[in-house]
Write a structure and sequence with these properties.
Layout (H helix, E strand, L loop, with lengths): L1 H12 L1 H35 E7 L3 H10 L3 H4 L4 E4 L28 E2 L2 E2 L4 E4 L3 E7 L2 E9 L8 E8 L4 H18 L2 E8 L4 E9 L12 H13 L2 H6 L6 E7 L5 H12 L3 E4 L8 H9 L6 E4 L28 H5 L7 H9 L8 E6 L7 H4 L6 E5 L4 H11 L2 E2 L8 H14 L20 E2 H14 L7 H10 L4 H6 L1 H81 L1 H12 L3 H24 L1 H7 L3 E7 L9 E7 L2
Parallel strand pairs: 9-12, 11-14, 11-15, 12-13, 13-14, 16-17
Antiparallel strand pairs: 1-8, 2-5, 3-4, 6-7, 7-8, 9-10, 18-19
Helix pairs in contact: 3-5, 6-8, 9-11, 13-15, 13-16, 20-21
Length: 652
């Protein structure tokens, strides 16, 4: 018993510490259980009542909400913000907030120019990666703006959370932001450019809408195009019922500066469509890239292919002498063209326009200055359904452009007859419907244009049109002249005849300079070609002479070697055949002079023949030297004549 008591005595002494430890364990477990229960309850509450919407900067709803947030007072009163002067949104809309800093003393003249530019406005924008709270229709919105990739500009995102049972509040928010955005953006046309490097579309800016009344074409052309486009956009079901691809193509061809691109811009503003521009001659354009771009085009837009005749060439000249086809690669141009990376083919272009993967619902507009250079497969109906020819300005167009530049005051004053003025304004609204969606003047014009009566403007316009030659000057030239005289309507008409003469002289001068330049370039090219030909011929001649000289030296050396071999053989054999030579000499002296001379001639011929044979084959001469030996014997009868004769002796 004592032993057991002594063993349990330490435990009885530490009973208080154990009890405290157990209490701490229980308390900690209770707290952790409560925390987990609360977190589970909060997560359940969030899942049941909190709604979160995410918006990416690559899509339109992001722009809608950012534009809507810029008008909210709470957005401008953020506790954490960025100060910037770049308050223009991605689509050209000015994003100003209620907290923007403005100069009070200059508040009346916000659009004043300072040294050619407008005053900069300081804008306060909420910071990135910060949560902001806005009260909207009885709900608190928690908004967080962040950037997924800080190194890239257009990579932001927007997250909006709200406590609600359903997503009706978020739907109302998005629709309200969309209506507000479209209301402010209805006067602009958005331009998107094709990025051949990444195969995507890049927003290039927003342009002010251009009224259809500012486009002066031949009577009925504008109305025909506008009616055809509207009919196509409303005929999707009709196309589907008949199994026809829902696509429409327009080919605008004619002289440069005749208003083809301006007409497309005006049609886009009138129809409320965006413009997607593709440059077929851009660097890196290929069949796969073009097919990808065409497949990503929205269903309701204008797809523009400018300068279709220059699609497969890098030439900077588009005159009548240019064929539009790529030039053959030369030694100087093969390297740059090989590194261009553009592999677009005509087959790839045709498949991207109306292939299986081509987008539907778009209006395709193609422009060209030389329709004769287009392949028939590219301009056939089904790809280019409507053709419109643009020519130089006519007298009718000149009159219309003049009236467009110089407005006229109403014939009946408002004070004298208000009812008539209201009726005339209503008639004007109906006759010029393209002006209804244009914004009004936001500031006073810096140019004081005199307002003339309608009769005087009509008279000046007719006088101006009579001075313009028919189908000689471009519409762009007329517009440039009127821009220089936009505040001088009367002087503009008085000086137009002199301007026409100057234009003709300028054209003749440019034509002459161009002809001289072409002649000079042609002459330089001929001289260069002639010089290169002469250098080539001289080089070939030098190579030929050097080759002949080398061959001659080789032949001479070979003859010398061949001639040295027989002489050595004959000298060695002369010592061994001395007895035979003496016998031969005694025999030859007994022969008469006639026989001696004839034998000398015969032996001489035999000697020449044997020498030629020895020159042909030196080795054969060495072998035959053992059989036939040639000995030089002087004729004692002819001591005065140093000529020698050759006698052939056969070896035994």
């Amino acid at each position: 018993m004592n032993t057991l008591k002594n063993a349990l005595s330490p435990l009885s002494l530490n009973a208080g510490a154990i009890q405290d430890t157990l209490k701490l364990v229980v308390i900690g477990g209770t707290v952790e259980t409560a925390r987990r229960a609360s977190m589970s309850a909060w997560n359940g509450f969030i899942d049941s009542f909190f709604l979160t919407a995410h918006f990416s900067q690559e899509d339109y709803p992001y722009d809608w909400l950012m534009h809507w947030l810029s008008k909210q007072p709470a957005w401008g009163r953020s506790r954490e913000f960025e100060i910037t002067t770049r308050s223009v949104g991605r689509h050209g809309l000015t994003q100003t907030t209620t907290g923007d800093l403005e100069e009070e003393e200059d508040g009346d003249d916000e659009e004043a120019l300072i040294h050619g530019r407008r005053k900069r406005k300081v804008a306060f924008m909420p910071s990135v990666d910060t949560t902001h709270t806005i009260y909207y229709r009885g709900h608190w919105l928690r908004i967080t703006r962040s950037k997924r990739y800080p190194d890239y500009g257009n990579s932001g995102s927007l997250k909006i959370s709200v406590v609600a049972r359903n997503n009706d509040i978020l739907k109302k928010l998005v629709l309200e932001a969309k209506r507000d955005y479209e209301k402010d953006a209805e006067h602009r046309v958005h331009i998107f450019m094709a990025d051949s490097t990444y195969g995507c579309w890049r927003w290039n800016g927003a342009r002010q809408k251009r009224p259809m009344s500012s486009i002066v074409l031949q009577p009925g052309v504008k109305d025909m195009l506008l009616a055809d486009c509207r009919d196509f956009l409303c005929s999707e079901d009709w196309y589907a019922e008949r199994g026809i691809p829902f696509r429409r193509g327009y080919l605008l061809h004619g002289v440069p500066g005749s208003g083809k691109t301006s007409l497309i811009h005006s049609l886009a503003g009138e129809l409320g469509l965006d413009i997607y521009v593709v440059s077929l001659s851009s660097k890196g354009m290929s069949d796969n890239t073009l097919t990808t771009l065409m497949g990503n085009v929205p269903s309701r837009c204008i797809l523009l292919l400018e300068d279709l005749d220059a699609a497969f060439t890098r030439s900077v000249s588009r005159d009548s002498s240019s064929t539009g086809a790529p030039k053959e690669a030369t030694a100087s141009t093969s390297v740059p063209e090989a590194s261009d990376g553009s592999t677009l083919s005509l087959s790839g272009l045709l498949n991207s326009l109306d292939g299986v993967a081509a987008a539907e619902g778009r209006l395709l507009f193609a422009t060209t200055n030389h329709i004769e250079r287009l392949d028939p497969a590219l301009s056939r109906p089904g790809r280019m359904d409507v053709w419109v020819n643009f020519t130089h300005a006519t007298k009718w167009q000149a009159e219309g452009i003049f009236k467009c530049f110089f407005p006229s005051q109403p014939a009946n004053p408002v004070a004298s007859n208000p009812s008539a003025s209201s009726s005339s304004s209503s008639v004007e609204t109906v006759t010029d419907a393209s002006q209804k969606n244009l914004p009004g003047p936001r500031r006073k014009s810096a140019h004081s244009i005199p307002l003339l009566t309608e009769e005087e403007i009509s008279t000046l316009a007719k006088t101006f049109a009579e001075a313009i030659p028919e189908d000689e000057l471009s519409v762009a030239a007329l517009q440039g002249y009127l821009l220089k005289n936009k505040t001088r309507p009367r002087e503009c008409v008085e000086e137009v005849a002199e301007w026409v003469i100057q234009e003709r002289e300028t054209r003749e001068k440019l034509k002459k300079e161009k002809a001289e330049k072409e002649a000079k370039e042609k002459k330089e090219a001929e001289e260069k070609e002639k010089k290169e030909k002469e250098e080539k011929e001289a080089k070939e001649k030098e190579e030929r002479e050097a080759k002949q000289k080398l061959e001659g030296n080789d032949a001479k050396d070979s003859k010398t070697e061949q001639a040295a071999t027989p002489s050595e053989t004959s000298s060695s054999s002369s010592t061994s055949a001395s007895a035979e030579e003496k016998a031969a000499s005694s025999t030859s002296t007994s022969v008469s002079d006639n026989s001696s001379s004839s034998s000398v001639d015969a032996d001489t011929e035999d000697s020449v023949t044997s020498e030629e044979e020895s020159d042909k084959d030196g080795s054969a001469a060495v072998k035959e030297a053992t059989k036939e030996k040639w000995v030089a014997v002087s004729n004692p009868a002819s001591a005065s004549n140093p000529a020698t004769t050759d006698v052939q002796s056969s070896s035994p």
